[in-house]
Amino acid sequence: MYPPIHRPHTILSGIARYALLASLLWLVCSCESTDTRRGVYAKDENPHEFFPEEVAEPPYVRPSSLLEAIEKPSPWVDSVFNTLTPDERIAQLIIIEAFSDKSEKYEADVMNLITRYKVGGIIYFQGGPIRQAVLNNRLQAASKVPLLISMDAETGVGMRLDSTVQYPFQMMMGAIEDNGLIYRMGAEVAHEFRRLGMHVNFAPVADINNNSSNPIISYRAFGEDKLDVTAKSLAYMRGMQDNGIIAVAKHFPGHGDTDVDSHYDLPVIPHDRARLDSLELYPFRELIKHGIGGIMVAHMHMQQLDTTQNLPSTLSKPIVTNLLKNQLEFKGLVFTDAMVMKGVTKYFPPGEAEARAIMAGNDVLERLNSVPKAITAIREAIKRGDISQEEIDRRCKKMLAAKQWVGLDRYKPIELENLYEDLNPQMADSTNHALAEAAMTLLNNRKNFLPIRQKKRQKVATLSFGMVRPSLFQREVGRYARSTTDFVISRKASAKEIKKMKQKLRGYDLVIVGLYGPSVTPSNRLGYSKEATAFVTELARSNKSIMTLFDNPYTLNQFPDIHKSRVLVLAYQGHAHAQIAAAKLLFGKIPARGKLPVTVNGHYAYGHGISKDKPFLAVSP
Predict the structure, then answer these.
(1) Which fold has domain 66-85+172-420?
(2) How far apart are alpha carbons 62 and 136 in whole angstroms?
(3) In which band, very low, low, confident or very high, does the pLDDT at 456 lie, cut at 50, 70 and 90?
(4) Phi, psi dihedrals of residue 262, rounded to the nearest 5°
């Protein structure tokens, strides 16, 4: 029970009351005449701390979702907005690229765009975590409004930065049946983003890859089944957004069924609306229903949705506004794909392209050829009446609401101490091991050859294609086998080199083969010589070889008769954790649980995978 309130016994006379009221009115007017803006910068304080002058306003309570923050903007949004000129409101809709491994001159150019034009954000690419953090602190300190920081990090920050964690590409995760592991990875990615002062991840890839010739999506997609792609996209999204990072699904309306790379040309998608509704649009529709914060629009020509000749979907009002915003009722941030890509620049010059993208309904322009040309062209579009200033203002406030939702109204510089350690936690390594082990897909196991049970006097060799020295996979095999001899051979091996290798392997009873592509990143073409390809085929036909592919599932088609292998394991990529997991699988230390997320050919269809719900042998790891 509260104590009683004691009121003074003195009662003001009428004259005294009027005198007090007049004094209060004079005080209020004096304050307003000094500065009528709500939310000015406090002098000599952090330039990113905005203080509304009405002290009675309740503190900001962060909404549970970005969409709610956009729908109900706070006084902070208005206070910042009121400090911006019309050109600066346009600039808030622009995200520029930055690299932390470039020269001082390059960094000065980035700084100029921030201080001169007041752009809204940055998308970081290659560099290192310490260098990026130092650069980011400098850029944020110089910016009039806190910058929204993003990264195209489908596999985590390790996709762009050295000395950091990289998780699997989505095709490998498409083989995993436990989507809880993907949520866990999304949460880890969010932790790493927040530690680096970043706010937006351009992931997940929600495209359905049903075209084996797709040169740009392929292993970046979860697979070809719309339900699997949707469930895994939702898990990744939730892992990030539940932990304060804005997820951006891409590439709307669906980039999976094309054989043209929009980085180099404009893909043409011939499908009608019925097909799009039933397949390509399905994951995006479900992600919108479940609160995705952002969607990225692709550069593709979809003639059934917009008949304008050579018009990329990013510049199409029927696609961006009518379909995405109105029909699918998406209320979050709409991002363009990079405006430097040939899919848009082939037919539209800098400036015009950005103005058309804004007129089409996009909220944020990403990676521009020219910031000043874009601002000028959008300003001219406003003057012509192609888009209203009110609409620009509304989108600017959406951007500011997103900035507050990620905490930029209370911006603090990135703490450099222990940054490396914080970005490489034990949990991340544990998550990577769990993902890799759950993804290993056993395609062939004739006569139950696995697990390997090495017999006495049995001579075992390991052979890695595409390596110059024994691989991690070979070293891991050596941990479980009694003894092995390791060999390596080039992907470009000549007939003479092949002949020598055959002679070396002649005395061995079992050959454990690892097939690698040109990079640790999965590839579309392995680049094997005709002689090396023939040698792989010969090994596959033999009864003494075990084959493991550390690359894109579609590349199995580059090896005729590989389906005749006694044992064939699909490990998806040359990721260190995948190599460790593959060796464990061969020797029965972990179960085979992965399922093929795409159809490779007539021998290996979607869902193929020999399952073992427990390790082959009850042995300790």
Answers:
(1) TIM Barrel (3.20.20)
(2) 24
(3) confident
(4) -70, -10
Res. 82: pLDDT tops 80: yes
How high does pLDDT run on average in the chain?
A: 90
CA–CA separation, 561 and 559 (whole Å): 6
Domain boundaries, the chain: 66-85+172-420, 440-586
Closest CA to 374 of 118, 90, 109, 92: 90
CA-nearest of 439, 569, 584 to 515 is 569
Instruction: Give Cα separations from 331 to 67, 70, 252 (angstroms).
Output: 6, 8, 15
Q: Cα–Cα distances in Å, from 446 out to 337, 441, 449, 451, 601?
A: 46, 15, 6, 11, 19
Query: DSSP string covering 8-71, please?
Result: PS----HHHHHHHHHHHHHHHHHHHHH---SSEEPTTS-TT-EE-S-TTSPPP---SSHHHHHH
Of 83, 101, 96, 85, whose CA–CA distance to 41 is shortest?
Answer: 83
pLDDT, tens only, 198-239: 999 999 999 999 988 888 899 999 999 999 999 999 999 999
Average pLDDT for residues 270-289, to the nearest whole number?
94
C-alpha 550/C-alpha 575 separation (Å) is 8
Residue that the structure tokens 């900035």 belong to: 403
269's tokens: 């998608």
Contact (CB, 8 A) for 475 and 464: no
Give Cβ neighbours of residue 525 (< 8 Å, ≥ 6 apart): 555, 558
| Between 44 and 505, the higher pLDDT residue | 505
Mean pLDDT of the 298-305 span? 92
Of 31, 70, 121, the residue nearest 404 (C-alpha): 70
| Cross-strand partners of 142 | none
Q: Which of 26-35, 81-90, 169-178, 306-315 has the lowest mean pLDDT?
A: 26-35
Cα–Cα distances (Å) from 36 to 82, 144, 167, in that order, read 10, 19, 50
The DSSP string of 422-465 is HTS-HHHHHHHHHHHHHH-EEEEEGGG-PSP-PPTT--EEEEEE
Alpha-carbon span 320 to 322, nearest angstrom: 6
Number of Cβ within 10 Å of residue 97's Cβ equals: 16
CA 125, distance to chain mean position in Å, is: 12
CATH 3.40.50.10490 fits 440-586, yes or no: no
